[in-house]
Amino acid sequence: MKWGIMVMKSKTSFINTGILRNDFKSFGWIGAAYLLALLLSIPLKILMMSSQTENANINDLYMYLRIFLFDQNSPLQLMLLILVPVLTGLLLFRYMQTSPAADMAHSLPIKRETLYNTHITAGIIFLFVPLIITALVSWAVIAGLGIETVTGLHILTWLGISLLFNLLFFMTSVATGMFTGMSVVQGVLSYILLLLPTGLLELLLHNMKMYTHGFAYSYYSHNINLSPLLRLTDISSYALQAAEITAYLLVCIALYVAGRFFYQRRQLEAAGNAITFDLLSPIFKYGVTFCSMLMLGSYFYGTQNESMGWTYIAYFLGSLLAYFLCEILLNKSLHVFSFKILKGYGAYSLIIIMLLAGLHIDFVGYEKRQPALADVESVYMDNSFYSLYEKNRPRVTYPENNDPYFENRLDRPMPVYTEADNLANIYSLHQKIIANKAAEKGSLFSDNRKLQYEKVCLAYNLKNGQRVYREYSITTPMYAKTLKPIYEATEYKALHNEILRIDPAKINLISINVPDTTKNVKLVTPEQIKQAIDALQKDTLNQTYEEMTSNRPGWANIEMLVNDKHSYENHGDNMQAYNLSWNKSYANFEQWLKKNGLYNQARIIPGEDIVYAIVERNAANTGKDMAKSRVKVIPTLQLLIQDLEKEPGILKITDQDQLELCLRNYTSVEQPTYNMFFVLKNGNILWGGFSEDDAPDFVKEHFAEQKAE
Amino acid sequence: MIEAARVSKQFHEIEALHDVSLSVHKGSIYGLVGSNGAGKTTLLKLLAGIYQPDSGQLMIDSESVFENNAIKARTAFIPDNLYFFPNYTIQDMANFYGLIYPKWNKERYLKLQDVFNIDVKRRVKTLSKGMQRQYALWMGLAMMPDVMILDEPIDGLDPVMRHKVKNLIIQDVADRDMTAIISSHNLRDLEDICDYIGILHQGKMLIQKDLDDLKADVHKIQVAFAGEIPPTLLQDIQALHQEQRGSVLILIVRGAHNEIIRRMQSYHPAILDILPLTLEEIFIHEMGDNGYEIKNVLY
Fold it and tell me: Does the distance separating the beta carbons of B72 and A107 come in below 8 Å?
């Protein structure tokens, strides 16, 4: 044994076999119980699953693999991995937290270091042996059942990750135990420490976002997961990287060294104290106060409509409460309202006020800072940083398993702009957003804001390799003019329209389906498919900003099925398809359909499909009682139409040209001025509305006359 | 053998020990007396290497005790507040100590079973308080220690048990030249077994004495004279304390027994009596002015 050699060499024995044997006698049950629970949650689960499904299909086979992926599907397993290591640390070092036990253990002729190492060795054995046995048994069961989706490598990976995280959680618990004198505090503090890296970062970022216009909160927030505890729960989505494994191992070593350091300097009489080192008490106290302040602040900010007043009240309450609770815990007394203690809180408040004032003044100039356009090489612009952090943190996919759970879509290109014109346009958009800070704040909670705002996420790649991240919520109508040139640029369109990236040779079927009818056109010959896609591409490139952002429903849905044998055979129903709406502005496609005699089958035609249409003025917009707003109370559209026809003042349309005009212009905008209903021959009702601007003249005239009467 | 030099220890704002020194010779028994909170337990835990002093030194055989395995292996500490592993039987605990203490003597452990007469298969926590103390002493003695540190080992025991415990300790001291330090809040409990007594009060060592010297040295004398008390007598004798009850003069005097008698006889007293002093009286007189203040401590 490796330790045997060390015992020979050094004067201080690394472990004491007597203590180790006693640990086995006293705490061996931990290992036994852990093994039992692990066997129940893994090999037994596999056996149960295999006995339930007689003819296992691909999905079920994948379910076996999921057991080894730490996903939410195995809650018992995850719970064990998180709870048992910390609990083991608590129990093995319980003797330090009660005075008689600590006295007894330390009157023995064994050095503290030896005690420390021995208990850690015992803990590692209690945790590791059950995991290793479970892996072996699982492997035997998998092999015995002949489940091919789970390979030895999967089980080995599972084992490796489990061992690593068990060690990390256990060492956190052990090291924490050295500077606290209460088992409860040790347990709670262990989990707090395990969550703290993410929790604190998240709190800081969220609070930064409250103060700083344009702070790229979501970029920083999603990009990293520093907490090992939370990391374990998303390993199924993001594989553990070598760097992370190294970091965790280093943290384990650091925790071991820190624990040993604190143990050797620990005053045993501190058993029963929350914090055993006087020097650490203020860190603990102000740390908890700060975190509690940020937490309550974030909570109030979220629940009180981003009101800064409430946030400050929450800061005050959160910090005050935490500060005095800490004092009570540290002094083990309720008499904490002394001048000295109040002074400590006063000093804390002063520093925080200065810090907040600094943030408000934005003394580093963060909000106004924009890199010089000449220095910009490219810009990432999107309504989220999703593509960026997906690239930074590759998601786990299982191509070899034909995994239907993970989307298999056309790779979305990174929305990065490099053309000089676009850079300049985006740059001026950014300028305008910065200049509009105050105006945006005013419109933040106006009624219609929620419908019309969008997120703008920017990442400048500078020529010197640096990056600048900004994130804004903007009220879209305020920026229409600035957005127009960006949206109409070919670069933008190429990034946002799948149709421009489709290879016609890969499509083996285009199906055009008209909603609310059974009308349908199928294109199957390669020639037709190519021509149709050509036309659609041309139309996409011709689209204007207004057409892109309009709410007019398309004529039909265009579905393109991919000619991919692999995909087809394995997925059956899950065959891959791209969907596209045939927008009413697509003139080339319309022409092409007409030329090929398919036009009438591909859309609703007034004479063929529509009996008549009804337009009414929207009750909500005429100032009538909102409850009468029909769309909300009707049981079916058909009943509504029957009802509506009896109402005076409605407009009933049967003229084909008028119907066509209505069809082309109606929108699906919320709270329209006019409600529009098309009664189809098949009994279905197509409905939408007009805003005042969209409405055809004859509709406006009809209702203007109504009003006059 | 055991040496504490200017030891101080603070618990937060409370000073438990202030500048305490003591020394115990090999093969002797040191009695540490003090009221509750005087610092006895703290001092003993420091001597056992459990606590670290803020200042001063604690040595056994000229070696510092703290984190010293060799010294601790020869030391048995029997605390006031016993600890044993939950659900362990006496035999389990004996097995444990056997693994830890190199000088553990199994024969002695088995032999002592006859003395204590407790079933080794009983769980320690099911034993009565008196039995638990016996169990602790049993374990301590089986460790064959050179130094035994006992925190209030006889307080709260019935007289038969006290006697038994004292005898066992004395026997080891006599047979094996063991050194013992025993604490109690009652001086009387210790006077018949200790060679030295130290009195701890509010963290300070008030006084420490070799009992043999004390008892031989200090005497209580009752004298009466037919006539006047000879005026030179008081100057000659230098009493620690004097008191007159009627014609009887009571003196507490330091000096060799025979010498005092010889000197007193030279004044031709009508009555001369030399009376035994209780240990308390000796201490009270020894401490002079402080003596009466801490009278309560000693009883």
Answer: yes
| B139-150 tens-digit pLDDT | 999 999 999 999
Query: Which of A120, A118, A109 lies closest to A7, judged by CA?
Result: A118
A618 vs B243 pLDDT, higher one:
B243
Question: Is the distance from CB of A531 to CB of A592 less than 8 angstroms?
Answer: yes
What integer best gives the mean pLDDT of chain A? 84
Q: Is-contact B93 B139, C-beta < 8 A?
A: yes
Q: How far apart are CA A695 and CA A613, in angstroms?
A: 14
CA gap A538, A532 in Å, rounded: 10
Over the range A237-262, which residues count as b (16 or more CB within 10 Å of their CB) and which as e?
Answer: eeebeeebeeebeebbeebbebbbeb
Interface test with B, best of A99, A103, A119, A340 (most B CBs within 10 A): A103
Task: List the structure tokens of B293.
Answer: 């203040």
CA angle A304, A308, A313 (to 5 degrees): 80
Out of A101, A107, A267, name the one closest to residue B49 (CB). Answer: A107
pLDDT of residue A88: 97
To which H or E segment does residue B293 belong? helix B289-293
Mean pLDDT of A198-211: 82
- Residues of chain B with Cβ-Cβ distance to A101 below 8 Å are 83
Asked if the Cβ–Cβ distance from A107 to B79 is below 8 Å, we say yes
Helix, strand, or coil here: A583? coil
How far apart are the CA of B87 and the nearest CA of chain A, in angstroms? 9
User: What amino acid occupies position A417?
Assistant: Y
DSSP A117: H
Angle between helices A58-66 and A43-52 (to 10 degrees): 170
- Give the span between the Cα atoms of B204 and B16, in whole angstroms: 9
Mean pLDDT of A320-346: 86
Residue A188 pLDDT exceeds 60: yes
Q: Ramachandran region of residue B92, left (φ > 0), alpha (ψ -120 to 50) or beta? A: alpha
With beta carbons less than 8 A apart as the criterion, state whether A276 and A181 touch. yes
A131 burial class (0-12, 13-18, 19+ CB within 10 angstroms)? buried
> Which positions ≥6 away from A197 have C-beta within 8 Å?
A226, A227, A228
Provide the terminal-to-terminal Cα distance of chain B, rounded to the nearest Å. Answer: 29
Nearest to A269 among B11, B85, B86 (CB): B11
What does DSSP assign to residue A414? Answer: P
CA distance A487 to A422: 9
Mean pLDDT score of chain B: 87
In total, the C-beta contacts within 8 angstroms joining chain A to chain B are 64
Give the model confidence (pLDDT) of A361-378 as tens digits: 777 788 888 898 899 999
Contacts of B72 (CB under 8 A, 6+ apart): A107, A108, A109, A110, B48, B49, B65
Q: Which two tokens stand for residue A53?
A: 């499904």
CA distances from A181 to A177, A204, A329, B276 (A): 7, 30, 12, 52
Measure CA of the first residue to CA of the last residue in chain A; give whole Å. 102
Q: Which residues have a Cβ under 8 Å from the Cβ of A316 and sit 6 or more positions away?
A: none
Helix axes A308-331, A339-361, angle to 10 degrees: 150
CB neighbour list of residue B110: distance below 8 Å, 6 or more residues apart? none
Token pair 């596209």 in the structure block, residue: A580
Domains, chain B, with CATH or none? 2-202 (3.40.50.300), 214-298 (3.30.70)
In terms of phi and psi (left: phi > 0; alpha: psi -120 to 50; beta: otherwise), the region of B117 is: left
Minimum distance, in Å, between the CA of residue A334 and any CA atom of chain B: 18
User: Percentage of chain A with pLDDT > 90?
Assistant: 34
